[in-house]
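subagent[fold] <- orchestrator: predict structure for attached chain, return tokens only, no commentary.
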Amino acid sequence: MKRREFITALGAAAGWPLGALAQPRAMPTIGFLSPRSPDESAELVAAFRRGLAENGAVEGQNLAVEYRWALGEYDRLPALAAELAHRPVAVIVAVGGEPSALSAKAATATIPIVAIFTADPVERGLVASLNRPGGNVTGISALNGTLEAKRLGLVHDLLPKATTLGLLLNPAFPAAAGQLGNMQEAASAIGLQLHVLNAGTDREIDAAFDVVAQHRIPGLIVAVDSFFVTRRDKLVALAANHSVPAMYSLREFATAGGLMSYGVDLLDMYRQAGVYAGQILKGSMPADLPVMQPTRFELIMNLKAAKSLGLIFPSGLLSIADEVIE
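subagent[fold] -> orchestrator:
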């Protein structure tokens, strides 16, 4: 290169924006939206990160994650979802059921969304079909909201002489009407009466257990709901204090001292959400990723809780339990 050409090229480079030379590529960012709280979701977040790692995505190395937590208050989710959409992020992972998924979908029609659903996402209008979602939303359907009838049957097996059982339901949960319908149908089929207890706040939970005591309701099913999960220690303690056998939706309740739970392997669901998010970062489109469904369900029984209630699990129930907590 001639001296004059070199000086000209050097002058042109001096006019480039600061940092244009050898500027590192910016890391993609995932938005993580949950109705729960960070302190009681540590294991779930770790499972989500394992799923990301399966696609070579490691938080802090080649990926950033923006976390938004609603702390059990569903009405905070729309604003949190909008905040993530305006960042903007490359993918939104909406966990904890329909409240998060619906909020994320309302916030953006273009950013890919990976959601964990508790009920049928087709019925909720979140995807066109399970095999071909068709829009910007895909994910994993826990089917947890459709397992209420199974939980009712398990409680009936434990308490065969009971003619009435309680159902603790959060009317603010989008799938609540479906949960109630499924439970009423299942109860009617085996000749049981349902005493429905609505609770969407801590005070209403306390009031519901007062009703359980006043009416001497012999057993309780706690419906699927992220609000209840964030209050699991409170629910388990109230059930123990009122000496009422209770069935829950997730293993987390049984390990916290609850009597029994039946539901999906939630850790694996979060791992799968991480896998899908990682695939989308690599170029997959949510419209082409089928909604996954669980293949394994867990029945967990807590012998210590049963003993404190003066109960003995029937041998038939123990024989089908996936885990018995001593």
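orchestrator: received. Logging for downstream: The longest strand covers residues 29-34. Confidence is low (pLDDT under 50) at residues 1-23.
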